[in-house]
Amino acid sequence: MTDLTSLTLAAAREGLANRSFTSLELTDAHLGAIEAARGLNAFVMETPDQARSMARAIDAKIAKGEGGPLAGIPLAIKDLFATKDVRTTACSKILGNFVPPYESTVTSQLWRDGAVMLGKLNNDEFAMGSSNETSCFGPVVNPWRRDGANTTLVPGGSSGGSASAVAALLCMGATATDTGGSIRQPAAFTGTVGMKPTYGRCSRWGIVAFASSLDQAGPIARTVRDSAILMRSMAGHDPKDTTSVDRAVPDYEAAIGKSVKGMKIGIPREYRLEGMPQEIEKLWTEGAAWLKAAGAELVDVSLPHTKYALPAYYIVAPAEASSNLARYDGVRYGLQVPGRSIGEQYENTRAEGFGAEVRRRVMIGTYVLSAGYYDAYYLRAQKVRTLIKRDFEECFAKGVDAILTPATPSAAFGIGEKGADPVEMYLNDIFTVTVNMAGLPAIAVPAGKDAQGLPLGLQLIGRPFDEETLFSLGEVIEQAAGRFTPARWW
Amino acid sequence: MSVDAATVRRIAHLARIAVTDEEVPHLQGELNAMLAFVEQLSEVNVDGVEPMTSVIPMEMKKRADVVNDGEIADDIVRNAPATDDHFFLVPKVVE
User: Fold this and answer.
1) What is A264-325 written as a DSSP string?
2) Fewer CB within 10 Å, N or C, chain B?
3) Catalytic residue among A158, A162, A233, A472
4) Nearest residue of B to residue A201, measured between CA atoms
5) B16 to each of A141, A348, B51, how far by Cα in Å?
6) Is the complex ipTM more than 0.90?
7) Is A104 a catalytic residue?
């Protein structure tokens, strides 16, 4: 039998349906791969016993012809999603050994549809980071290396464990979350496909909150089709999240292979940054040419407030984070560091429990919301956000179906290479953060390699709730660029 | 705008995060770097612009005002560092 871990999710689904192999065999193959790849530090918790018991149960169902759209498919879960009776930490010391007595809505829908859980994946602490270096479990290693070099590279972040595990063929797909680029940037750094759906498309219930008006769950997968399959199970209305949208979930997979002829693709001039590497520019031009060859029409568009998205984000996101993270008081769950008074206990617990990046953002957020500064910072940033959203609305009103941009300003960088200056790290999200500010859907699709052999991605941004167009266009790029799999060294 | 050492201590207290005297200068530098970065927003004309309050325009759903959960005290205290008979324990608050 060929190595089962090298199949796409779609191919594995077919193999399971026609009984070429069982879910237990598929699950065991992935558990073996996970064990052999511990050096990547992608998993913070392996759940082999639970995986095998889920696989056996679904095999019995498949035998009876019952199953579900993800029957028998082994997946892994970012440690930001609450999983019932399985430790959930957001990769922060402050959650300690928290074991949720409940399951997040998104993961419960995956199990409803027959998927198998392999374990929990590493991420930046509370999803704050672009390199997966802020996790209390240590950094994740990118399975990609530069040609002829053995420097360890970051997988991007915050969903670094998800991206690394999918790229290294440790799971057939993974859940991830995206607040400023945390699905798309790691996908671009690892040659995988990352879809950040429209705000409200997936329930946020049971996902550890970072910035509630920006957070969205989505999949990281090996192909565009695989991400469409996963999206259908992850999306849907949930009465427990008042921002989740009550709208039918389409069959996203039906959009794969659909003609893009006549579609209008916007090329935003503000994304052409000064000093942008030549190879990013080339990748972008090439991607546009592929879409044109498939019958799409390219149009120049302008999104004039683009440059203000990142600074506005670094007010809005920390402000919401400071409020959301106020719940970590060391009383009801997680770490507790004693003090002489309850106030001192709070302060000691939070000083010990939060890492440097989280502390920095909570403090900035506290400052911009504090009396006397609210109008100057927070209110102004929310007004800028309205302008950013308006830019996109005006563009779509002119008949643009989707917008094509690079996913990241560079390929993956080395562990420890960036971070002395926090703002330098934040610039990673320059192309992705606008999308969160406007609540739009966007997909990152691998499209080529840089001169050192590292994968690079393109981003497609769509109209609200038009993920289908992004899957159709993403498929065109994937067909032209091919798939990207790292040579195994670990 | 930039923050001084006293403001850093005040923010830390508001955020309920203990900071040592040695940490203050470093934190002050980091916070000021971030404030310098966001300073560029002051050049945007926001006259007459409404602040964004809802990402996707829609009416919030409301549910019936009825009890729909409960009787799970064991679950609720299960993860607490210190409990007694379904109560969370904290240092003495009232003398």
Assistant:
1) EEEEEGGGS-TT--HHHHHHHHHHHHHHHHTT-EEEEE--TTGGGHHHHHHHHHHHHHHHHG
2) C
3) A158
4) B56
5) 34, 8, 29
6) yes
7) no
CATH assignment of A4-262? 3.90.1300.10
- Percent of chain A whose pLDDT exceeds 90: 96
Please state at what angle helix A356-369 crosses helix B23-38, rounded to 10 degrees. 60
pLDDT by residue (tens digit) across A218-248? 999 999 999 999 999 999 999 999 999 999 9
B21: Cβ contacts below 8 Å, ≥ 6 apart: none
Residues from chain A contacting residue B13 (CB–CB below 8 Å): 347
Q: At A37, list the tokens.
A: 């790849």
Catalytic-residue membership of A158:
yes
Measured from the Cβ of residue A414, the count of other Cβ atoms closer than 10 Å reads 14
Judging by beta carbons within 10 Å of its beta carbon (0-12, 13-18, 19+), is residue A270 exposed, middle or buried?
middle
Give residue-wise pLDDT tens across range A442-473.
999 999 999 999 999 999 999 999 999 999 99
Burial (Cβ within 10 Å: 0-12, 13-18, ≥19) of residue A488: exposed
User: Is the Cα torsion angle A28, A30, A35, A36 positive or negative in sign?
Assistant: positive
Domain ranges of chain B: 5-42
pTM of the model: 0.97
